[in-house]
Amino acid sequence: MTPSGTVSTRLDLLAAMLRIRAYEEKIVAFHAAGPFPNVCTSVGQEAAAVGVVSALRAEDQILTNHRSAGHLLARGADPGRMLAEVMGRSTGYCQGRSGTLHISVKELGVVLTSTIVGGELSLAPGVALSRAMLGGEGIVVCFFGDGAACEGIFHESLNLASVWNLPVLYVCENNQWQAFVHRKETMVGDHVAPWAAPYGIDSLTVDGNDVESVRKAALHAAAQVRETRRPFLLEAWTYRQRGHMEPHDQSYVDPAELEAWMAKDPIARLEARLLADGECTTAELETLHAEARRAIEEAAGFASASPYPDPSDLATGVYA
Amino acid sequence: MTPSGTVSTRLDLLAAMLRIRAYEEKIVAFHAAGPFPNVCTSVGQEAAAVGVVSALRAEDQILTNHRSAGHLLARGADPGRMLAEVMGRSTGYCQGRSGTLHISVKELGVVLTSTIVGGELSLAPGVALSRAMLGGEGIVVCFFGDGAACEGIFHESLNLASVWNLPVLYVCENNQWQAFVHRKETMVGDHVAPWAAPYGIDSLTVDGNDVESVRKAALHAAAQVRETRRPFLLEAWTYRQRGHMEPHDQSYVDPAELEAWMAKDPIARLEARLLADGECTTAELETLHAEARRAIEEAAGFASASPYPDPSDLATGVYA
Amino acid sequence: MTQMTFHDAVDQALHEEMARDSRVLMFGEGTATKRKGLLKSFGSARVRNTPLAEGIIAGTAAGAAATGLRPVVDLLFAPFLCFAMDELVNSAGKLRYMSGGQFSFPMVALAMTGGGWSVGAQHNHNLEAWFVHAPGLKVVMPSTPADAKGLMKAAIRDENPVLFFVDIGLAFTPGEVPEGEATIPLGQAAVRREGTGVTLISYAKTVHTCLAAAETLAEQGVSAEVIDLRTLKPLDEATILASVRKTGRAVIVHEASRLCGVGAEVAALISEQAFEALRAPIVRLTGPDAPAPASYPLEQAFAPQAAGIVAAAKDLVTRTLEAAPIW
Amino acid sequence: MTQMTFHDAVDQALHEEMARDSRVLMFGEGTATKRKGLLKSFGSARVRNTPLAEGIIAGTAAGAAATGLRPVVDLLFAPFLCFAMDELVNSAGKLRYMSGGQFSFPMVALAMTGGGWSVGAQHNHNLEAWFVHAPGLKVVMPSTPADAKGLMKAAIRDENPVLFFVDIGLAFTPGEVPEGEATIPLGQAAVRREGTGVTLISYAKTVHTCLAAAETLAEQGVSAEVIDLRTLKPLDEATILASVRKTGRAVIVHEASRLCGVGAEVAALISEQAFEALRAPIVRLTGPDAPAPASYPLEQAFAPQAAGIVAAAKDLVTRTLEAAPIW
Ligand SMILES: Cc1ncc(C[n+]2csc(CCOP(=O)(O)OP(=O)(O)O)c2C)c(N)n1
Ligand SMILES: Cc1ncc(C[n+]2csc(CCOP(=O)(O)OP(=O)(O)O)c2C)c(N)n1
Ligand SMILES: [Mg+2]
Ligand SMILES: [Mg+2]
Predict the structure, then answer these.
(1) A257 Cβ neighbours under 8 A, 6+ residues apart
(2) Class of the D2-177 domain?
(3) Which CATH number fits domain C190-317: 3.30.70.1670, 3.40.50.920, 3.40.50.170, 2.40.50.140?
């Protein structure tokens, strides 16, 4: 586990990204092996997740969406309980009732995960309102996609957070795709960050495939939210390396675009930098990769061995 | 009647505004006289309505909302059939089924009037899509309030109109109030026009209480939409002189604000200008006022004498 | 006992609950402007105006409810809930279950509906049945000021999201309201009038129509029991079934449209659980499958009338006597 | 007859109708990407991708429908309709009536729902009953590829807004589809199996569960009639009532949650219109009042099972024999 707040060295950042990559690759392997629930992987977006989450404090809260594995793992979630949830097992974080698309882990402050695109945006101001009214220093981080920015609730969420001075750090992972549609078909500009201006919200676009840049930008943005108790919009410019979901399909993706972005893989970039700076050796990197894979294999073993919930439990716990 | 497109002289503009004022004052009088359906009057906003509508062509279409009397009358709607509709009579434009809040007059191109704040914004792109795909030179004008601009559908509507290149002239009547809430409580800036920028939509704010300025701006904006077949946002900076609806209540309004705006009354301003320029005499103005009142009295007589629909008709015409 | 309007009774409940529990807050379009008393007592942090945006009002309530506050939101008129369905249904209603019980959503969403103001179908649409159908939500629709107060207090204290509908036709009608607590548990119907020959089942404004009909029926020798559901979810099945098992006949009355309305649920319940006691068909008198018209006479005709209830009840009694059992 | 999946049958209907009528167009999130055949045949003006914004997709369809086009919109999964309720219900459903008939809304809104993919309650929520309850809308939910094609063609030709729900569990199941026209009028149920002892009434996926149950029941000496509603609004009341008048017993089955669902409407209809013919209580077997779980075994248990239908039907037959008439 990589508890939030303890990640700070470049090697820590790498290890956190490798863990996410190994997790997603295990999902891909499960799919290759036979029927498995559809999953939206975050392969290629590890730097955005790790860079932002590493900049947060324990008391901060996170809202995320269908593409949440990076955020959860970076925050220290147990990959075993995550995989168990994906597989609908009773040991999953949500007792198997969520499945892959809306895993919340309240004990880590990952709250109200929703797969309704825009759901996270609709809920974040309320979570921040609780923070504002019940005290505490925490801020609320709301991860969402470039597609979610096209939903009306984006407008309502940012406007309310601004007029009510709510401490929300909005983080848009602009991964160029909105399921099967390129963002070029859905917005006139390339970037979501400028959409914050009408609400008087400061914003910044960062190279989302450079984990160190993301971390730096997130530390800056989070500090501003903490201090001003006002929202901020951080856009991570990144790429969804795989299809919208597993099983994988990229037939509609321009191969040149894909190739250009594959060359900017966030893990390879950090590794190259570490090697160039002499901060580690190829062998040490190999060890880190192996350790990540081992941890995920163990998690997969736990999940696969976990029982399904009892069907007689089907309709319990709907009401408090 | 003042058929659209034939209004062009300053005296025509004045007559059109006087007609609206007389209509709304009749509504106020009806309220004073006894129970009458609640109505949202457009007193104070006549210049925005007349200035924009006078700049349109017969083939253009208009969408409006709960505060529609100015738009309808400026477009040439019969005040008798409008009042009949307000009073729920079968001679009303919608057979009494609409009442005051959603009067459509398809034959004049005033389509799909909706009292759902944001309803007009949700429907306008589709009307414009029909224009774009079925041919014709017409453009679509969508009147909405500063409050409506806070609904998420504003964001979705402008974004779609932009990425699909739809000929929509969005006209925001920023009358400073959103029912019982001042716009200062709901948006950080004063103006809605800058909210068009993220969508790559050009915009302009005009003094909405100066009918000649509005007409000029609307002619410019409409010409641009006609030529580019792209949306444009025109903001008319104006004021709701009465309460949100009749029966009238302004207890929550800052008297200083009200006073300042009353001094900018659009009718008084044009009259002063006409007198100063020697374009008409006080006596001629009196005649115009009297004519407007007479026409509305006649309309009120027609409406009051009209029958109610037959209750047995209650559930007919729901389906086509 | 004090006389006050339905609207004031709701306001008093809000006042008492906000005084009792500092986590309770209220917001909506014009809430701070219109609820001056609340604003004065509890300040601008707990009584807020919002931008005109129902989605984020409801979403903010859900987010706040899940993390420690107990929001009440005023969404004004029921059709405007159409802009808040995702937040109410997909978030507040489902995320408790979907998260394996990690969150709860103690919140109340208030909205007016029903005929009486000639405002037309975009302000007047009785869509309470939608929220009965959706899981995880509770639904309240009272018929008297006393119930409005007692149920609002219970709704605020409930750990689940509650939709609280105010019938426009009742909002400014005065009635007796008891002092102090007088909380009314969610899920308890009220027997407004006892009777033996037929059960009239209703809620909100049409409870009063049923009571008027029962009066007329009594004059004509038919003893009608009148049940006021008060809470539509959870539904007080026991009270409904006990009554129909006694009378053998049911007339269900509401202003909402007929198809898949609350009346359908009540009829289905009876036809499954009290079938053996039924002595006549179950009749529904409801609004038609049409938008609510603005025109006053049409709007009045939209809601079921006492004369229709009387006729239906008498018909059931007659048909029972005439019909021969088929087996 | 050709074998094709439900999904392909819908696609074929779209193809034929777009070829027949140049006013028909289709748009949605990924429509142009996923419906390559349509895009190729009809071009990018008539087959469009949209931004991710269900409200404006539905609103644009309504605005276009009222002014000369005949849009089909793909809203993907039923819970996403929560972002389009205003446009579907307040605009498309009401503005014809509210305008005194000045507009009509010939449009189709497509959405998937139902169990089978373990996607959880924010993708799987059978909320067809909401649209049956709301005025001005029609609702279709077919159970076979042939019906999917025939009903989609009819839906596109209808002058009213039609909600077209595709049961996820059926979408990729192949079946026989007739060549050419084979349009199926909206509002006609199908008797899938004739029988005399009990009527099983259902729609979409659970029609097949009912057919399986009928098979078992036949082996056990109970003759079950199976009705596939196909169109939920307008409901084919005549077919339902004729069957129950014949069998005297009804079991209503659907995956949607129980309260105020379509089953409630059907039960209420029968209990009012066919009461004299009823020989046993009307039973509903439905999904519970709970969000749909993702976990596969729970998701399977959410929908009614054949064994439960068999047991319920047999119970009704038994109870009829034992029960004595009470009057
Ligand atoms: C309201 C809603 N509409 C559509 C979907 C289907 N859907 C799931 S993810 C997705 C794309 C989201 O794009 P984006 O917000 O950019 O996030 P990304 O998947 O790229 O991380 C879509 C259309 C949904 N889940 N919710
Ligand atoms: C969706 C919705 N929410 C709330 C209302 C109630 N309402 C009617 S008009 C209005 C204020 C609208 O403000 P604005 O858009 O600025 O228009 P104005 O009334 O100032 O002309 C409100 C809140 C409504 N009709 N629809
Ligand atoms: Mg994206
Ligand atoms: Mg305004």
Answers:
(1) A176
(2) alpha beta
(3) 3.40.50.920
Contact C98 D291 (CB under 8 A): yes
Whether C123 is catalytic is yes
Per the residue annotation, which of D15, D123, D125, D208 is the catalytic one? D123
Q: Give the pLDDT confidence score for residue B1 in this predicted structure.
A: 37
> Inter-chain contact C326–D290, Cβ cutoff 8 Å?
no
User: Average pLDDT, whole number, for chain C?
Assistant: 96
Q: Give the whole-angstrom CA distance, residue B201 versus residue B273.
A: 34
Q: Is the pTM of this model over 0.90?
A: yes
> For the residues C195-219, what does the mean pLDDT come to?
98
Contact B154 A155 (CB under 8 A): yes
**CB–CB contact A197 B199 (8 Å):** no
Nearest beta carbon to residue D290 from set A119, A308, A315: A315
C125 neighbors C114 (Cβ within 8 angstroms): no
Residue A130 phi, psi dihedral angles, 5° rounding: -60, -45
* Cβ–ligand 2 contact at B145 (below 6 Å): yes
In 3D space, the residue among C248, C253, C274, C275 whose CA is nearest the CA of residue C264 turns out to be C253
The phi-psi region of residue D153 (left if phi > 0; otherwise alpha if psi is between -120 and 50; otherwise beta) is: alpha
Cβ–ligand 2 distance for B117 under 6 Å, the answer: yes
Q: Which ligand is nearest to the CA of B143?
A: 2
Q: Break chain C into its structural domains and give their ranges.
A: 2-177, 190-317
Strand partners, A143: A171
Q: How far is the CA of B180 from the centre of ligand 2 (A)?
A: 9
Give pLDDT, residue C179: 87
Q: Per-residue pLDDT tens for B98-157?
A: 999 999 999 999 999 999 999 999 999 999 999 999 998 899 999 999 999 999 999 999
Chain B nearest CA to D71, separation (Å): 10
- Tokens linked to D207: 């029609």
Closest residue by Cα to atom 18, ligand 1, is A145
Q: For the CA atoms of D93, D98, D101, D107, what is the dihedral angle to 10 degrees?
A: -20
Q: What parts of chain D have a pLDDT lower than 70?
A: 321-327
Residues of D in contact with A179 (CB under 8 A): 29-30, 52
pLDDT in tens, B21-32: 999 999 999 999
How distant, in Å, are the alpha carbons of A252, C7, D152, D166 from that of D7? 20, 51, 11, 8
Q: Is any Cβ of chain C less than 8 angstroms from the Cβ of B97?
A: yes
Shared fold status for D2-177 and D190-317:
yes
With CA atoms as reference, the chain A residue closest to B165 would be A188
Q: What is the DSSP letter of A251?
A: T
Residue B145 pairs in a beta bridge with B173
Where chain A has pLDDT below 70, the residues are 1-7
- Residue environment code for C16-25, b if the CB has 16+ CB neighbours within 10 A, otherwise e: bbbeeeebbb
Q: By C-alpha distance, which of B120, B118, B100, B99 is closest to B110?
A: B120
Whether this model's ipTM surpasses 0.95 comes out as yes
